[in-house]
What we know:
Layout: E1 2-6, H1 10-22, E2 26-30, H2 33-42, E3 47-50, H3 59-68, E4 75-79, H4 84-92, E5 97-100, H5 105-120, E6 126-129, E7 132-135, E8 140-143, E9 146-147, H6 152-163, E10 169-170, H7 171-178, H8 188-201, E11 210-213, E12 217-220
Parallel strand pairs: 1-2, 1-3, 3-4, 4-5
Antiparallel strand pairs: 6-7, 7-8, 8-9, 10-12, 11-12
Amino acid sequence: MxxxxxxxxxxxxxxxxxxxxxxxxxxDSCFDGEEVFDYLAGADYDVVILDVMMPKKSGFxxxxxxxxxKNDVPVLFLTARGDVDDKFYGLDxxxxxxxxxxxxxxxxxxxxxxxxxxxxxxxxxxxxLGGLKVDFKAHTVTRDRKNIELSSREYAILECxxxxxxxxxxxxKIENSVWNYxxxxxxxxxxxxxxxxxxxxxxxxxxxxxxxxRGVGYVMREEK
Length: 224
């Protein structure tokens, strides 16, 4: 998944980025409300984490504009403002969740996973297709109960494909989901990683799961 974190406390911002990257997320971050829109204009995010009290534009103002522009990306407020009225206001303004500082990172990560599950229409952290089983919480991959070891980048691309199973994903869309703004490679890298995934996931199985749509990209589906 690709996350955007807007938090003006720089030390906390850096910690959150590092912790989510350890979990395999692609993460962009910024420090004020106006920067959020620069990032939203250039990428699609699975979840946005907003502080409320930020320079230039508050998190409440950012969310109101996002929703007025029909941007329905899941949003979690992460803030020291814990009054009931603030929570009501944030949730009524269109936030999907509200977590008060101080907090435990495990809880934050669990809430982010829950928001992503709901957005994808899945009720658990486990996605299954054609004997392939991906547990997003445990970060494990098996096919027909055989463990499959993946690099962090292979795992991120697989997650992108299986979350969108049945939908054709262009190389640019996969790249946008997996890499942050620091990435300076090319879309041909996606082809390389797809070869790696096919070798680990499809080799030895009659039922191939990763398919090429010529001139468009890739799709994960089970062909009967």
